[in-house]
Hints:
Radius of gyration: 12 Å
Largest sheet: none
Oligomer: single chain
CATH architecture: Orthogonal Bundle
CATH superfamily: ACP-like
Amino acid sequence: MQREAITAELKSFLEREFPNQAVELGESTNLLEEWFVDSLGVVETVLFLEQHFGIGLSRADVNGTNFKDIESLSRLVCERLKT
């Protein structure tokens, strides 16, 4: 799967599951500071990544670097799909 497709699917998921009328979601929008309402959103995103893309994530993967924005999440998914 190409990174552009992963990015588009992540953006669609985030806009659908966590609508935020005050912020336009872009690839570099800070998800932790500007998008998620609470930590449950992070958990739901982990479940989406694992189920939708068929990847496994560890506790260490769930951090501010990987969940900073759509770009970093796309990079994480791409890395996991290669292994």
